[in-house]
Amino acid sequence: MSSFPEIDLDDRWIRSHRAPKNQVDELLPYAFLVEEECTASGAIESVATLFLTNKECPFRCLMCDLWKNTTDERVQPGSIPAQIAYALARLPPSKHIKLYNSGNFFDTKAIPPEDYQAIASLLDPFETVIVECHPKLINDRSLTFRDMIKGKLEVAIGLETAHPEVLEKLNKSMSLDDFSQSVRYLNDHNIRSRAFILLKPPFLTEQEGVHWAKRTLDFAFDAGVGCCVVIPTRAGNGAMDVLETGGFFSKPSLDSLEEVLDYGIALGRGRVFADVWDLEIFSDCPECLDARKKRLESINLHQELLPQISCDCRSTGDFQRR
Ligand code: SF4
Ligand SMILES: [Zn+2]
Questions:
Q1: What are phi and psi of 208, to 5 degrees?
Q2: pTM of the model
């Protein structure tokens, strides 16, 4: 394990390395798209993802860059329903929807509870509604919202890593017990959950990063989640770039992402997805990048293992090792 820096990686330090936020409009989602996903039933169906503009998350996780597209103040009641209506009017129909708000859907300072009913009405056509939330903000408001929507509610939670010391250093204000308790609470109340898992957070070597991503998949499924998303850790938020320069972080390799996805699929305990956004930054070989990206996308969609892509960039025989 790499050593930890001497300094406190606290809110103040993390914020001090930030660049200015992007300009956002509280009446517009900052992005929206439709993509195919293997859904809980095993069918491949369209899922709309809306990235809602709202007040910055109250937590200051070391690796987070979601604050870039947030406001400093709570948005006006009516703005979130307006954003959802705006995106839905411009997207093709889909059966499922993700409302990702760069923070916590059940944070009353982010999504005004007085908007829940208007939001729920806009969500009538969807069979599944997926929101994101930190365990400390999952509570009876989640149940209130569950009862307002017609579809099935699913909550995505950033588990990040099951490595207890690294999790603490991520400044997430969350213990592994907090995560497990929230998943249990959601399961007990007929709400699904999914976990976001970081591949190779700071302070870990490549090998440790792979090891702990696998242990984190085990931990998430033991806790009772139905789905895990493995996200290769990136720099780019200021704090992570300082850690990278100081030798406390380096981005994971595409090989590692493949190994962890293969492991998760082979477990057969629930859906496992690899985040393939910006995949080129994790690849050193332009020759095989497209084929490897297509392979990961296909595994994501079908939840079935595929043979490794062979390329000269892999050491001899290495591509056959799994
Ligand atoms: S809880 Fe989520 S949105 Fe909030 S700072 Fe942490 S990673 Fe970012
Ligand atoms: Zn290659």
A1: -65, -35
A2: 0.96
